[in-house]
Amino acid sequence: MDFDLTDEQATIRRAVAELAAKFDDQYWADKDAAHEFPTEFYRAFADGGWLGITIPEEYGGHGFGITEASLLLEEVAASGGGMNAASSMHLSIFGMHPVIVHGSDELKRENLPRIVTGDLHVCFGVTEPGAGLDTTRITTFARRDGSDYIINGRKVWISKALESEKILLLTRTTRFEDVSRKTEGLTLFLTDLDRDHVDIRPIRKMGRNAVSSNELFIDDLRVPAAHRVGEEGQGFRYILDGLNPERMLIAAEALGLGRAALRRAVRYGNEREVFGRPIGKNQGLQFPLADSLARLDAAELALRKATWLYDHGRPCAREANTAKYLCADAAFQAADRALQTHGGMGYAEEYHVARYFREARLLRIAPLSQEMVLNYLGEHVLGLPRSY
Amino acid sequence: MQWSLSEEQSAYRQALRDWLGDVAPTEAVRGWLDAADHTTFTKRFVADGFWGVGVAEDLGGQGGGLVELALTAEELGRHAAPSASWLATLLAVPALAAAPAARAEVLAGAGAALLVAAESIVPGPVPVTVDDAGRVSGTVPRVLAGGEARFLVVPARGAAGMTLRLVEATDPGVRLARRELLDRSRSVADVVLSDAASEPLAVAAGEVLAQAANRAAVLVAADSLGATERMLELAVAYSGQRRQFGVPIGSFQAVKHAAATIMVGVEAARSVIYLAAASVHGGDPRAVLHAAAAKAQVTAEGARAADTALTLHGAIGYTWEHDLHLFYKRAKLDEWLFGSPTAWNEVLADALALA
Ligand SMILES: Cc1cc2nc3c(=O)[nH]c(=O)nc-3n(C[C@H](O)[C@H](O)[C@H](O)COP(=O)(O)OP(=O)(O)OC[C@H]3O[C@@H](n4cnc5c(N)ncnc54)[C@H](O)[C@@H]3O)c2cc1C
After folding, report:
1. CATH match of A7-117 with 1.10.540.10
2. Atom number in ligand 1 closest to CA A370
3. Which residue of A has its CA nearest to B252?
4. pLDDT tens, position by position, B48-98
5. For residue A157, how far is its CA from the centre of ligand 1 (angstroms)?
6. Architecture of A240-381 per CATH?
7. How far is CA B85 from the centre of its chain?
8. Which atom of ligand 1 is nearest to the CA of A375?
9. Residue ranges of the domains in chain A?
10. Which residues line ligand 1 (CB under 6 A)?
11. Complex ipTM, two decimals?
12. pTM, two decimal places
């Protein structure tokens, strides 16, 4: 066994941390308060060549694995940028996976190099008002019309749609009622978010406000067949391919956020004096923080193992789910304790832990709830009957 | 809203606590448990007039109701007294409302037991059948104080559906097999009935059993509360005496907070138990919810508190010499006795109209 990062990985980690450190907590607090996309930050990472970390070299990327991508997103979140920072680039880092694996050469040539340069912003449209975790229940429909498709439907929660030129859009081309297996009849497109046919309305939400999440009303959106990813009817399978790495990246973001929160808590625990001594001297404060450290460290190990398995082409669903579960919980707990450590000041935006807290809460819900992780482990790993 | 014990109730509690302090200090309790002797305690409890408390006067008791019984259970738990027979009897007495002769004997100390597996919410599965001649057959495992009762109140299935039957434990058709419990302050026995003679009990079986389930929930919760309070006292006293790193371990915040958490549980337990006792006694339509909340919350918390108290004692708590284990085991059995927290939470969930 070998717990060391490779030299290359260590370098990536250090370089990302240095670059991200140029954007301090105040930057993120301001962006969050103004509901403003972190353009300068995003640009810095695009210019540094980081957005193409997993994109194949022939399209201008670096062709690295999930381990490197997870280190990148972890450090980005850990810088204090949290989920605002991570979400601003999340889709660029790995979201093109279905296109890379299943897309046509033309689709790849047209889009991937622009992802790498940062010129192309993309969002991911799966969730619908009537279909949350139960993805196959989506009803947004792509009807064939000559060489095109005409798409109608509604999406919800689509992050970054406001800022995006294109959308990776999951639709049905055969209705749920008409397929023999519910996972069939779904088709994936990478296409333009034509504002004349897609009405985008931001949702007011609890946190991560520098990156919007939106409701999409899609009305007769015409899409050429060339924008289809892979074959018609196979979209669900393509998305499924990317779920494990997606879980790992979310886990990495959670882990980074938890580290940021813990760092703030420790700093405050050492600085703040009450009853004539630093509050961190109280076991009632010190132990929860020490406990969070242990939990974050344990979660990190689960994550490293998961990305290692994936990069070695081994089965990793159990580890990916476990990593997501442990990292999301450890991060939320760390953020909650950081807030408590700050007392009343934790509730003030000034100390940033309130922002971390709001963002950490999200990771227990989206993109996959903790309950669904347990469903997966219970059913597919333990072999218990499917509960739903 | 204000709810507090009446002057008589407070005086009763004090009298009982004093009495238990004299009669059942832990040295005496240890002696009885080592000898597997539960009858000496029961006899004194009867002789000194505590047995009929909480039974209405028109039934031959000394008056009072479930609140008085809960006070009694709490004090018995606090002393880890061998009180299975008392609890079993008090749960069976309402079924004897129309059987004056048996009831008189029972209240004079003979003891009765409801034939129900001790871990189930009353009545649990009903494995006993009754034939046309009134003979009952079937095996009921783990009956609380099943080996200490003169009369058995038996839920039985027959031509008329489920009814309650009265069987004398001395009947040749009754066989008893005692079982050992980890908590030696209570006892259970498997009861095997083979064509035992029985008399009908002219009460509404369903109602009496439903009420018994609620009463059992409240009284076991109260027992758990008493044991928990005692463990808290022991833990606090010990953490004041035991010194490490040059200071009493009680000066460590983590130790203080652990004890304070038990205290929070104790206070919450008292509130819910006495509300539930009054509610079940008064026939409040939500009584079952109160009883379920009490049993599920209090006994689960009691079991957790037992673990915390053990932690606070360090290795000494793990020994047989120290008294802690008497109460630790008491609280652990209370968690399971007459329905686990999970089972009672199911009762609550059903009542909440969740899908
Ligand atoms: C800030 C934010 C950004 C998002 N960004 C995007 C995005 O960019 N693109 C996109 O497509 N989506 C996005 N989402 C949506 C996100 O993926 C969904 O919210 C998530 O999948 C949960 O779906 P839901 O909200 O409809 O919950 P539901 O499916 O309605 O579930 C509600 C609750 O029921 C529980 N539950 C459901 N089924 C089961 C079961 N079988 N067993 C046990 N419990 C169950 C869930 O765990 C949850 O607690 C975003 C959401 C948020 C909040």
Report:
1. yes
2. 47
3. A283
4. 999 999 999 999 999 999 999 999 999 999 999 999 999 999 999 999 999
5. 9
6. Up-down Bundle (1.20)
7. 9
8. 42
9. 7-117, 122-237, 240-381
10. A 123-127, 132-133, 157-159, 205, 208, 213, 362, 365-367, 369, 371-372, 375, 388
11. 0.73
12. 0.85
